[in-house]
Design brief:
The complex is a heterodimer of chains A (about 190) and B (about 300). By secondary structure, chain A is an all-alpha fold. Chain A has 7 helices and no strands. The N and C termini of chain A lie far apart (about 85 Å). About 5% of the residues of chain A have low confidence. With about 300 residues, chain B is mainly α. The chains are: A mainly alpha (about 190), B mainly alpha (about 300).
């Protein structure tokens, strides 16, 4: 009789624990969903607009394009890189594909809208910096090319991070941009 | 599904409205008149906010700033605001926010932002290597501050033993630094003002190019955000406003302090606007810091505690 009642007690205890765990899981699940829903409300449905596209949701076409530019830059020919950039840009236009804002700022400036605020940076600081780097690189002057690259890097970092934020916070687009053009800061491989 | 299609239609209408507004003509004269039509938002050249004044009294009381040092800072701010066209209240509040006027802050930590304006090396590089990129004459004006010493302005400390005193927090006995050291009060403040002016010019030039109206005083708050977090983040926030509300909405934001305050203290919205630049963790931190800094600068510079 006593062993039967203790078995019953054990069963009750297990039941309570199982119930408790289930309730716990349900509560966590409910809370997670609640916060998820609450957070996504602030998106107001704009996530489908290219200007608000989340970094992680990048279009594979755009990722592929940047990888292709990266590959072209390894050949050490500015001309080839420019050709590849031109080819991709035309392809984007032909397919009416709008690259993300970051990719447009650093790689496909011609795809920025005419009234874009970023044009101040791309036309006034980035493009002249790239022009200087190309000139120094193609003249074969490593010292000038290094200097031109450093100026370009400085402009990008100040634009992205201001005076006080660490360089480790650079956006992926800027990092990739600097990585590609650093290859033109010296002829040594 | 229905909601999504309704929303897409709304977005198209908004974009078209935005495009239509962008086409409107505005003569240069009209635009200049518009920029000059705003009454000043600064109630006084020196910040009036209670938090600012309480903290300054505390710093003086606890000996963290001596009377002499405070007077030097005050004189240097006066000179720099004239030299680099920065409103005095903004420069006071920026330096207060960045370092609580601690000229040697983080001086022993080469990887951190240092000095009175919390500069990283890149900020000094902009002034040393690319000084006239934003405003012609910046190099000459900085030269007036550091002469007869030559460029570059550097994070140099003399003598080296001073580093030990800084580690121990005993900065009052450190001798005056060379004129081209960022740790010299006049130079640090001038360099910070020049860098802030560059951010302002970068923002103003982008807006002027598109003849977008703004309140010149209010734009300084955006410039402080760009000083702290980069111009790109500020552009992202403004672009978002334009995409959703069109140019009129953007102008309304840039001319109306209440709207600016609502936007730049809304961490969720800031986080959302920064989506195209950073991944989730970075941008959340960024949004929180941006909002906190803005709140402080707003109440400090305009003397309005919300």
């Amino acid at each position: 009789m006593s062993s039967n009642s203790s078995r019953k007690l054990e069963f009750k205890q297990v039941l309570v624990i199982v119930l408790f765990v289930t309730l716990y899981i349900v509560a966590i699940w409910y809370a997670a969903n609640y916060f998820k829903a609450r957070y996504s409300k602030s998106d107001s449905g704009l996530s489908s607009h290219p200007d608000f596209e989340e970094l992680k949701d990048r279009n594979p076409k755009e990722k592929e394009a940047i990888t292709s530019l990266d590959k072209a830059s390894w050949e050490g020919s500015w001309e080839k890189l420019a050709q590849e950039k031109n080819r991709i840009s035309k392809d984007f236009s032909k397919n009416q594909f709008k690259p993300s804002l970051g990719a447009s700022v650093y790689f496909f400036q011609e795809h920025l809208e005419s009234g874009s605020l970023e044009k101040q940076f791309t036309d006034g600081h980035l493009e002249p910096g790239l022009k200087n780097l190309r000139q120094a690189y193609e003249y074969g002057n490593d010292k000038d090319a290094k200097r031109a690259y450093e100026t370009l890097q400085n402009r990008v970092e100040n634009y992205e991070l201001g005076a006080t934020t660490q360089a480790s916070e650079l956006s992926e687009d800027a990092q990739k941009f600097l990585e590609i053009y650093q290859r033109f800061s010296s002829h040594k491989k | 599904m229905k909601t999504r299609s309704t929303f897409s239609a709304l977005l198209v209408v908004l974009s078209l409205a935005g495009c239509a507004q962008e086409d409107r003509e505005r003569t240069d004269e009209d635009y200049q008149r518009l920029l000059q039509s705003h009454p000043s938002l600064f109630k006084a050249p020196v910040p009036l906010g209670t938090a600012f004044n309480k903290e300054v009294s505390f710093l003086k009381k606890t000996g963290q700033i001596s009377k002499g040092q405070f007077n030097k800072i005050s004189t240097a701010i006066d000179k720099s605001t004239v030299r680099f066209d920065v409103p005095p209240a903004i420069l006071w509040c920026l330096l207060y926010q960045e370092s609580r006027f601690d000229v040697f802050r983080n001086a022993t930590e080469p990887n951190l932002a240092r000095g009175i304006g919390q500069f990283l090396q890149r900020a000094l590089d902009e002034l040393n290597e690319d000084p006239d990129l934003f405003a012609k004459g910046t190099k000459d004006r900085l030269n007036e501050v550091i002469k007869p010493e030559p460029f570059p302005i550097a994070f140099s400390i003399y003598p080296e033993s001073a580093l030990r005193s800084i580690q121990l927090g005993k900065t009052t006995k450190i001798p005056m630094q060379s004129k081209n050291s960022y740790y010299r009060i006049e130079t640090g403040i001038a360099a910070s003002a020049a860098y802030l002016n560059n951010r302002y010019r970068q923002l103003a030039s982008a807006l002027r190019k598109n003849k977008i109206g703004y309140h010149p005083d209010l734009l300084w708050l955006y410039a402080v955000a760009a000083y702290n977090k980069g111009t790109r983040a500020v552009f992202a926030v403004l672009n978002g406003e334009r995409t959703v509300k069109g140019i009129d909405g953007l102008e309304d934001l840039l001319t109306n302090p209440t709207n600016t305050y609502s936007l730049l203290t809304d961490t969720k919205l800031l986080d959302y606007r920064l989506r195209p630049i950073w991944g989730i963790n970075k941008r959340r931190r960024y949004a929180q810091e941006m909002s906190k800094n803005f709140e402080m600068i707003y109440s400090c510079a305009f003397g309005e505690e919300k």
